[in-house]
């Protein structure tokens, strides 16, 4: 709900209230829902601004910076007008949230040049989230150069810790919390993509609660956190100003990507709000609410070394266990026998696929499985027909040796010709294979940014605009196909991408212990529905640790389940175990994939933690308890559940595991399970623990409300 009284605007969601003084461009309040009205004057005149600019002797970080049309760098944006719109405006060329209309529009004008700054605030009631965006319109008679246009500025008063989600390839999005005290800290990416290293989702954690901010953007981003001497904590998020300089001609406008922000009293609440928002207002299309299929992917099973027989063996075994979708990964096209060649040659390698893609896909479908395909459309190998015929499609600076990563170059997606080429060839791959699932990969980052006639300062953003154009055309053409994003695992795990891909490969690290941490960190800002999670072979290919098959399954249930191993080589015993796992997953898929997700505690050395998902009516839940290390003669581990109905009585049973003889079954009150918890008395009695190194210990609990 948005209400205006003079220029004081109040935006309410069921649990939060934001109050803005539009004429002063000031935050008056953002936090817990206020039930009373008025009294906001008492809060006016604080240094909390909704945007900031260079000039006025203000030397803190600004949200708007430009080389102005009058040749200077100072601006003096002052209030012009405010409006409540009934429809949320589209952001040209960029993906954004949808499903709510009412939007507050604020306009500020730099009088000497007539340049206008617009800010938009849309209220998402069902998730207590506010989407914010900004736009500059050049009303001057001369061009200007934008050096920074943040999507959002959130000014707070008090002491805050700045929480980020950091990592690297194979250890993405691990939570890092820093008490900033005084000074400036920033979290960013200059890699051309949102990155494995620093996700755009950040949290400001203070005494009165937590504020989460995320960007609906896949490119270079920057989140600045500045704690000033006047007690103000400023959070600015948007496109990274690294190398950014955007020319705006008279009459033109530039839109910054959308940001989303929300307040909650605690991190669990913040995650639930963000999850609901992503599920309802970011993910779209036919797969938005559909249960996701259980897949088998051949990558870790075969890498590049496969032929039709091997693939069909995997598919046959997968079908026997109840798996629903077969995904053919890298290596099926051109002369792609290793990662040195053939990216860009999206024609069938008949030696490796038998009679080609269509014939293989038909055989897989005849077995009763759906067929999915891997592509990496934005890349090119120098050893490829595409490079030989179109060397200019590759991104490189003329006269310089390009930087190679994984032996490949990027295509110049800032060029419309290249975009159209990708749309054509990838559409053909999907159409000729009849794929119902596409894994869209991206395995290196940008270095040699160059495109003829594209100013350097615009390149990174123009690449992303080109990428979104390609993605939106292809996803619109194939509305029934389930697209899963991937970027050397989770290197582009962001809300911009989730507007196109309902799910994303979370990480190339499939080790259960590592995955527990990666999924835990990821879950702060993203729901389990978007996290691809696979059971792979042991010893694990990334860590060489081993974990029982049942443990690997328990952890993979924290996301969208798949198997990624040579199922053609499974023993009869393993097949039996996987068959039971798949049947269990199907029975509980809805609550596992779409339930409210809670983290249950620590996931680092020696800690007891895990996760649980609870149906919206709180009648059923699945919990996974995990002990990451066995402390000899240590305290008996125990865990407290979350999200249940405190006054309901539940029946709790352990999922039968092949590596554990006993089975626990008891009834207890919701409040007892959440406050008292349960002792994990026999968690170290797994029969296969001795055969495994680097093993973690897990139990899965099925929790059902007893009939009254
Ligand atoms: C990336 C992906 C993997 C796999 C390989 C194929 O690393 O993350 O899942 O698809 O590429 O080359």
The CATH class designation of the domain at 2-282 is: Mainly Beta
CA-to-CA gap between the ends? 38 Å
Number of helices: 13
Radius of gyration: 26 Å
How many strands appear in the DSSP assignment? 38
Name the CATH architecture of the domain at 2-282: Distorted Sandwich
Summed over residues and divided by their number, the pLDDT gives a mean of 96
Bound molecules: alpha-D-galactopyranose
User: How would you name the CATH homologous superfamily of the domain at 2-282?
Assistant: alpha-galactosidase from lactobacil brevis
Q: Helical percent range?
A: 10-25%
Strand content: 25-35%
Q: Name the assembly state.
A: single chain
- Shape, per Cα inertia axes: globular
Low-pLDDT windows of residues:
none
Structural class: alpha+beta
Describe the structure concisely.
With 708 residues, the protein is an alpha+beta fold. Helix 7 runs parallel beside helix 8 and helix 10 (512-522) runs parallel beside helix 11. The chain is globular and about 80 Å long.
Task: Name a few traits of the molecule.
single chain, 708 residues, Beta-galactosidase, Chain A, domain 5, Immunoglobulin-like, ten-stranded antiparallel beta sheet, eight-stranded parallel beta barrel, 13 helices, 21% helix, binds alpha-D-galactopyranose
């Amino acid at each position: 709900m948005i209400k205006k009284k003079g220029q004081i605007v109040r935006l309410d969601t069921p649990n939060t209230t934001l109050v803005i003084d539009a004429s002063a461009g000031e935050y008056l309040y953002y936090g817990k829902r206020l039930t009373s009205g008025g009294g906001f004057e008492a809060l006016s005149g604080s240094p909390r601004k909704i945007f900031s600019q260079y000039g006025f002797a203000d030397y803190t970080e600004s949200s708007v910076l430009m080389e102005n049309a009058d040749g200077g760098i100072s601006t003096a944006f002052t209030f012009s007008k405010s409006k409540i719109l009934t429809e949320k405006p589209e952001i040209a060329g960029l993906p954004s949230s949808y499903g709510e209309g009412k939007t507050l529009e604020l306009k500020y004008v730099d009088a000497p040049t007539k340049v206008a700054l617009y800010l938009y605030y849309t209220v998402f009631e069902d998730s207590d989230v506010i989407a914010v965006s900004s736009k500059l319109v050049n009303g001057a008679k001369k061009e200007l150069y934008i050096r920074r246009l943040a999507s959002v500025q959130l000014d707070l008063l008090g002491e805050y810790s700045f929480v980020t989600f950091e990592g690297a390839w194979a250890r993405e999005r691990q939570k890092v919390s820093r008490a900033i005290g005084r000074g400036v800290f920033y979290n960013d990416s200059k890699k051309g993509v949102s990155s494995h290293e620093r996700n755009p989702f950040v949290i400001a954690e203070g005494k009165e609660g937590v504020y989460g901010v995320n960007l609906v953007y896949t490119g270079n981003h920057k989140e600045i956190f500045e704690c000033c001497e006047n007690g103000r904590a400023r959070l600015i998020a948007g496109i990274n100003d690294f190398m950014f300089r955007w020319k705006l001609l008279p009459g033109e406008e530039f839109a910054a990507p959308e940001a989303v922000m929300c307040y909650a009293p605690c991190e669990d609440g913040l995650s639930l709000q963000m999850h609901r928002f992503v599920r309802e207002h970011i993910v779209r299309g036919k797969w938005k609410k559909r249960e996701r299929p259980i897949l088998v992917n051949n990558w870790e099973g075969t890498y590049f070394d496969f032929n039709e027989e091997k693939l069909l063996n995997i598919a046959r075994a997968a079908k026997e266990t109840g798996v629903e979708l077969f995904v053919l990964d890298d290596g099926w096209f051109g002369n792609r026998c290793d990662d040195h060649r053939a990216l860009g040659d999206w024609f069938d390698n008949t030696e490796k696929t038998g009679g080609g893609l269509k014939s293989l896909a038909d055989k897989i479908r005849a077995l009763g499985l759906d067929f999915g395909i891997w592509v990496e459309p934005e890349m090119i190998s120098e050893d490829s027909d595409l490079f030989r015929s179109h060397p200019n499609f590759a991104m490189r600076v003329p006269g310089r040796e390009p930087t190679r990563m994984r032996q490949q170059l990027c295509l110049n997606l800032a060029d419309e010709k290249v975009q159209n080429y990708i749309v054509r060839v990838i559409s053909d791959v999907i159409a000729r294979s009849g794929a119902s699932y596409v894994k869209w990969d991206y395995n290196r980052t940008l270095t040699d940014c160059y495109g003829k006639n594209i100013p350097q300062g615009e390149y990174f953003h123009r690449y992303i605009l080109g990428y979104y154009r390609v993605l939106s055309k292809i996803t619109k053409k194939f509305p029934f196909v389930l697209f899963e994003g991937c970027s050397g695992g989770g290197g582009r795990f962001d809300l911009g991408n989730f507007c196109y891909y309902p799910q994303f490969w979370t990480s190339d690290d499939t080790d259960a212990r590592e995955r527990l941490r990666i999924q835990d960190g990821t879950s702060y800002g993203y729901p389990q529905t978007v996290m691809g999670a696979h059971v792979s072979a042991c010893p694990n290919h990334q860590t060489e640790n081993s974990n029982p098959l049942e443990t690997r399954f328990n952890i993979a249930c924290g996301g969208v389940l798949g198997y990624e191993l040579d199922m053609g080589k499974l023993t009869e015993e393993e097949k039996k175990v996987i068959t039971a796992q798949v049947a269990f997953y199907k029975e509980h898929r809805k609550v596992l994939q779409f339930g409210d997700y809670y983290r249950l505690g620590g996931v680092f050395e020696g800690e007891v933690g895990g996760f649980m998902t609870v149906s919206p009516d709180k009648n059923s839940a699945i919990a996974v308890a995990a002990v990451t290390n066995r402390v000899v003669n240590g305290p008996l581990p125990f865990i407290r559940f979350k999200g249940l109905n405190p006054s309901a009585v539940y029946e709790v049973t352990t999922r039968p595991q092949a590596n554990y003889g006993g089975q626990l079954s008891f009834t207890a009150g919701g409040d007892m399970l959440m406050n008292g918890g349960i002792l994990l008395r026999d968690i170290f009695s797994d029969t296969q623990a001795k055969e495994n190194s680097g093993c973690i210990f897990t139990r899965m609990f099925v929790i059902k409300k007893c009939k009254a």
